[in-house]
Write a structure and sequence with these properties.
single chain; 394 residues; alpha+beta; Creatine Amidinohydrolase; 6-stranded mixed sheet; 9 helices; 34% helix; 20% strand
Length: 394
């Protein structure tokens, strides 16, 4: 399988006119290299290493003498080093004669740019131009296998169930006039994640009223806002199964602590939901037609609905992000705002679609569901979809 991956990488290099791909890491600073090279999360990797895949020929492994085993599973000639001088000598020899070398470098996509500037300068000092591996990288790092796809679907479904159960729990507290606040709701969800053996890289966002207008609000115990009858509530949570290789689910839901939402709340919710559906529908249509769809195109389709409704200035973030073993992954992002992502959405990848309208000091509505593209091109919305502004029934 690893030799097959090398051959596939060589085919991509030939297509883009690059002479080779130089993978580099130091202390797991380049997680994309670790994904491609399938280095276990628990493996000790404390020294610099390079893996040179030429467009034609045999790979070269450049490894520190005390960690010469790191790439044992991969094909190629081993070159070991001890001193910084010997490291430079081996890197220079590997790229000798190359005119274009692909690395995890980009001047527009920070998710691809994982190699430090000093190392880029070092490679340039040997003569070649350093170009971005982003054109082909996501084929190796963002495409998930069938078991990972199932893990994502299970995680997203579990999150959807947790939110629905949390709504009921909140409604019970409100109906009985029991005090409840953002932090208490957050800790309830954290316990549910633990009970289902799900892990996360950050705590859920629980945002009441004006706090929901901050897309990255941080729920804290020290200044937690109470939830009272009539209030607006946003819940954003993400998690994955506690197994190596598991893929995140990520959803956001909104509710009002009243019997019926206000007309303004309902109208804004309907706009955000229409925008979300516009993005999902575009992806489904393109894959049904067997046509490419780029990340920026989906962002444009979603953003147009909100702009046409007169709220473009209040949609202050990209439409969505790639999802894999990392919450914000290396694949195509649904973005033409924070960056112009002109990469196609690939079969076997996953991403969020999460438009929002935010009124500072008042409230914000964000709806987030995930989309998983099965390897054969079937488009599945995961984690459920919210079609109405939920009433907590007080």
């Amino acid at each position: 399988m690893r030799e097959k991956k090398v051959r596939e990488a060589q085919n991509y290099l030939k297509e883009m006119g690059a002479d080779g791909w130089l993978l580099y890491d130091f202390h797991r600073s380049n997680y994309l290299a670790h994904l491609f090279l399938e280095i276990p999360e628990r493996a000790m990797v404390s020294r610099r290493f390079f893996y040179w895949i030429p467009a034609v020929g045999c790979p070269i492994k450049i490894l520190h003498a005390i960690e010469s085993h790191v790439l044992d599973a991969w094909p190629g000639e081993i070159k070991t080093f001890l001193s910084w001088q010997s490291l430079r000598k081996e890197v220079g020899a590997a790229v000798s004669g190359a005119k274009r070398v692909a690395m995890e470098y980009s001047n527009g996509n920070p998710y691809v740019s994982q190699v430090d500037g000093g190392t880029i300068d070092l490679v340039r000092s040997f003569g070649p131009e350093v170009v971005s591996s982003g054109a082909f990288l996501s084929h190796f790092t963002a495409v998930i296998d069938a078991e990972q796809g199932k893990s994502h679907i299970r995680a997203a479904s579990a999150l959807d169930r947790i939110v629905k159960e949390t709504w009921d729990w909140i409604s019970e507290h409100l109906s009985q006039d029991k005090p409840i606040d953002e932090y208490k709701i957050q800790q309830k969800i954290v316990k549910e994640l633990e009970r289902r053996n799900l892990i996360t890289d950050a705590l859920p966002i629980i945002a009441v009223n004006a706090h929901s207008a901050d897309p990255h609000f941080e729920t804290r115990p020290t200044d937690s806002s109470p939830l009272r009858k009539g209030d607006f509530l946003l819940i954003d949570l993400w998690a994955k199964e506690r197994v190596e290789g598991a893929v995140f689910g990520d959803i956001t839901r909104v509710a009002v602590a009243r019997q019926v939402p206000t007309e303004r709340q309902k109208s804004l919710f309907d706009i955000v939901r229409s925008a979300q559906k516009a993005g999902i529908d575009l992806v489904k249509r393109r894959f049904a037609e067997k046509k490419k769809v780029m990340g920026f195109e989906v962002d444009d389709a979603v953003r147009k609905v909100i702009k046409d409704a007169g709220f473009g200035d209040y949609f202050i973030h990209r439409t969505g992000h790639s999802i894999e073993v990392h919450l914000h992954g290396s694949g195509t992002h649904i973005d033409n705002l924070e960056m112009h992502d002109d990469r196609p959405i690939l079969p076997g990848t996953c991403f969020s679609i999460e438009p929002g309208i935010y009124f500072p000091g008042e409230f914000g509505i964000r709806l987030e569901s995930d989309v998983y593209i099965h390897p054969e091109g079937q488009v599945q919305v995961t984690g459920g979809e919210q079609d109405q502004l939920h009433s907590l029934g007080t």
